[in-house]
Amino acid sequence: MSVKIGTRGSKLALAQTATVCKKLSALGIDAEQVIIKTEGDATTGVPLHEIGGQGVFVRALDDAILAGEIDCAVHSMKDIPAFRPNGLLTAAVLKRDSAADYLAYKGSLDAVKVIGTSSTRRRAQLLRHDPDISIKDLRGNVDTRIRKMAAGEFDAILLAEAGLTRLGIRIPGERFPPEKFVPAPNQGTIAVVSRADPSLMEWLSTLDHSQTRTDVAVERAVMEQLGSGCFTPLGIYCHEGHLIAEVLSLDGTRTERIETDVQTIEQAREQGRQLHVRAKDLIDDAYQKLGIRHEW
Asked: What structural domains and CATH numbers belong to the chain?
């Protein structure tokens, strides 16, 4: 059997797709990579919330699957929106790598005054930790971000630790514990999305890691109840059933947080509903300040 696997063209996306291809090859499945450019790759000069959020990295690949141009696509699972088109399924969720953020910096940590990130979550969590830090927007692939820091545009940049590991990059910095700096839902996880083809899904399902799938499903259940995409600063992290979720104000001065054990997806949804009620003013305020319309 052979499959066409769609991917973005960044080094990280290609590294993640190579991991999937290697696993499929071990099963006797030939995989052909097809690079597809997304709106998120083409438009790098503005914050993500101004061009539609994390979903801009996914839509072109979804369309290619539905059009029959590719059989499946490899994604950083945190980029996949909560609500998905009909006819597409997450056929495999690979074992999770580190979910933590990593602060890469030059010089000494004490000298860090300007940090680059385009994430509203990371911005809010940094400001909560140190209100005197200056946060500047930073987009682009990992190499671009590191190059901009080396050029002196930033003292430090905040990245996903898993991405650095997959690229084999070692750089001075500090790992942020996910229990304190709660990561984006599904951070550190690779997912394979495919059309609803039973034979294709049977092959891809052999790559699935059951505990990771359960944990990320809990995170997505909470995310769906919050309904706030990547516009509101929020972190959601589940490890072996232990759930931590928080919603922050854009400036990091206010937080609503839950921490509990969950055994079912419905319990996760209920926790998400409760957090939504408690954090509704934070969510509304973020949308208003970012100039984004939304309806509950």
From this structure: 101-176 (3.40.190.10)
